Amino acid sequence: MDWGMQNRLGRLIKEDGHCFFLPIDHGYFQGPTSKLERPGETIKPLIPYADGLFVTRGVLRAAVDPRNCPPIILRVSGGTSIIGKDLAHEAITTSVEEAIRLNVAAVGMSVFVGTDYEYDSLVNLGKLVNECQTYGIPVMAVTAVGKELEKRDARYLSLCCRIAAEFGATIVKTYWCENFDRVVHGCPVPVVMAGGPKCETEREVFDFVYDGMQKGAIGLNLGRNVWQHPHPVAMMKALRAIVHEKASAREAEKIFFDGTKKK
């Protein structure tokens, strides 16, 4: 692996081999998502606990302080909205030159295995990897979004993650599921877990994150269950403890409740 690629990955993945990325890219297809109407204000107290920020170039320039931010993973795919015909109909919307200009640590795009636009998204991934290899930029492939969440089981996610890795993705972002070890063991590149729809309880989040880490994930790329929560900093601290301090779900729950107490 080239020095530049290693250096960028080293900015994102910490010495323990784990990472906690904070995605705030939801507006690229959802518009002003609840709690992200003013993204700069939402993420300000969370920045100290994030190993990376997954964001579009528009929000990066408009709402993220360049003097005080973690390494950036730049969302480079898009093209359809939540009210459009099909969320899977995406293309590459941001150039590699733009990523270099913004000094990002990695770029990310979605792949839509099993949809009418499977071919398009996978070919786009291959082309993006080709370009990014030239400049030593890691590529994160994001699997199973939109309607494809209905297929969220080990068989489907294993297929998605392996194909993304085969096309050259450096890291794969996917969803936790039962038998998650099948997903991780079938993917030859690191896997990070997405948060998915907002969970009903904190413990539900801590349980799946702990299980996923035990089964081989290197970390998280989780947003809504943090910044849509009434106590986002406490959630961030608790999840970070699972990722970086080997805390159990029970220990994370205690960290969370301790963090919600008024001082």
Can you give a write-up of this model?
With 263 residues, the chain is of the alpha/beta class. It has one domain: TIM Barrel, CATH 3.20.20. 43% of the residues lie in helices and 15% in strands. The chain has helices at residues 3-12, 27-30, 39-43, 57-63, 96-101, 118-135, 154-166, 180-185, 202-214, 224-227, 232-245, 249-260; strands at 19-23, 52-55, 72-75, 77-78, 91-92, 106-111, 139-143, 171-175, 191-194, 219-221. Strands 1-2-3-6-7-8-9-10 form an eight-stranded parallel barrel, surrounded by six helices. Helix 9 (202-214) links the parallel strand 9 (191-194) and strand 10. It is globular, with a radius of gyration of 17 Å. The termini are far apart.
Quickly describe the structure:
It contains twelve helices and ten strands.
Q: Any descriptors?
A:
TIM Barrel, 263 residues, 8-stranded parallel barrel, globular, alpha/beta, two-stranded antiparallel sheet, 43% helix, 12 helices, single chain, 10 strands
Radius of gyration, Cα only, in angstroms? 17 Å
CATH fold category name = TIM Barrel
CATH superfamily: Aldolase class I
Q: Please tally the β strands and state the result.
A: 10
Alpha plus pi helix count: 12
Which class do the helix and strand fractions yield?
A: alpha/beta
Q: What's the CATH class label?
A: Alpha Beta
Number of domains: 1
Named CATH architecture: Alpha-Beta Barrel
